[in-house]
Write a structure and sequence with these properties.
- This protein is mostly helical and 376 residues long.
- The protein has a single domain, classed as MFS general substrate transporter like domains (Growth Hormone, Chain: A).
- It contains 16 helices and no strands.
- Helix 6 runs antiparallel to helix 7 and helix 12 packs across helix 14.
- The longest helix is centred in the C-terminal third of the chain and has 30 residues.
- The protein starts with a helix and ends in a 9-residue tail after the last helix.
- 51% of the residues are buried.
């Protein structure tokens, strides 16, 4: 029962991390109308700015672990999460709002490595695949719930969408009650030796996020010819549901197909984007979206599992901050990489995605020849 409470507590943090930018995305249209006199770039930064500060905070995460014990660090991060997130409800100045969004990024940078690293710290290696799958599933479910609630709240008024971050209060209660207040090693930090040791997983996570974010930045535009606005929303939410379901069964998949799993995400992304590039028929849109959901649902927990098993109890202060930084760097750079490339080559962004998936497949093959996992 104690382990179960601890697991639920750590998973409650996983529910929150994806919400840094994604939760506000449905309200961006309403927010842009409210700030109609401001630069569109400033409005877009409301969604993208947290990613930069998540990366910066991840880079100093080992230092934070030396300064604070786990429960103290988690409570500090979650408290800042609620205050910076819901505090934006009271703001009516775009620059002050961006300060709150930057603080939101700092808060997620404090809790993101804990959401996966504590699983490696408290649970044995043979359980890592199943636990990382559950963590990824909770992450996806958090995105679904937050997106839905933010959309409803934004229909009341633009600033009501920020109240979705009050969900962090539930995690604060669980952490205060059930998370032990231990001191992690604090070793790690960014170094060439650490990057060399974990580069297969770090580079892989970056490529997964570059690939995945081609979908949300392009699908609504390309699918509008075949689907209504509600249809587009339902298909995009359906992708998150598919990724959630895959996360739930990821542990079982790793037990049965451990040696083949390294191919699943790159092949899934490749097939998914080829389907989307093939045309705008309903079948192509649904099949492509489902394949991308499967690829994302496998890719993230697979890389977290590989990294956590290799790092052991030190995962929270070594590989997990690097994986978190790579994840958000991929999110931030994806449109900056894909859109110019598609324009230069005069092709669909989805074809660029298929090409990047080939690079990801080659990276997985070349860097994981000797990768061994414990029996799981």
């Amino acid at each position: 029962m104690k382990n179960r409470r601890l697991l639920y507590t750590i998973l409650s943090i996983s529910l929150l991390t994806v919400m840094a930018g994604a939760a506000i995305a449905p309200a961006l249209g309403v927010i842009s109308k409210h700030f109609a006199g401001q630069s569109p770039l400033l409005v877009q930064l409301i969604v993208s700015l947290p990613a930069l500060f998540i990366i910066l905070t991840n880079l100093v995460f080992p230092l934070l672990c030396r300064l604070m014990k786990t429960r103290t660090l988690a409570l500090a991060g979650l408290s800042l999460y609620v205050l910076a997130g819901a505090g934006a409800f009271f703001v009516d100045n775009i620059w002050v709002l961006l300060v709150f969004r930057a603080l939101m990024g700092v808060s997620v940078g404090m809790i993101m490595p804990l959401s996966t690293g504590l699983l490696a710290y408290y649970f044995p290696p043979e359980e890592q695949a199943g636990l990382m799958g559950l963590s990824a599933a909770m992450n996806q479910m958090g995105g679904v719930v937050a997106t839905f609630l933010a959309g409803l709240l934004a229909s009341v008024s633009w600033n009501y969408a920020f109240l979705v971050y009050l969900l962090g209060l539930f995690a604060i209660i669980l952490v205060a009650l059930f998370l032990p207040n231990e001191r992690l090693s604090g070793r790690g930090g960014v170094s060439l030796s650490l990057l060399k040791r974990f580069h297969p997983s770090v580079v892989g996570m970056f490529l997964v996020m570059v690939l995945f974010f081609i979908y949300p930045t392009n699908f609504a535009l390309t699918a509008s010819a075949s689907l209504s606005e509600m249809g587009v929303t339902l298909v995009m939410v359906g992708l998150d549901v598919v990724a959630f379901l895959v996360g739930l069964v990821f542990g079982a998949l790793m037990k049965r197909f451990a040696s083949q799993m390294k191919y699943a995400a790159p092949l899934g992304f490749m097939a998914g984007y080829l389907c989307l590039a093939a045309g705008s028929s309903i079948v192509s849109l649904l099949l492509g979206s489902a394949l991308i959901g499967i690829a994302n649902g496998i890719g993230v927990p697979y890389l977290n599992t590989i990294g956590s098993v290799k790092a052991g109890k030190e995962a929270a202060t070594t590989v997990m901050p690097l994986l978190s930084a790579a994840l958000y760097l991929g999110q931030f750079l994806s449109p900056l990489i894909v859109s110019p490339t598609a324009d230069l080559l005069h092709v669909s962004p989805y074809l660029v995605g298929a090409g990047i998936a080939v690079i990801y497949l080659l990276q997985a093959i070349l860097t994981r020849k000797q990768q061994m996992l414990p029996r799981i």
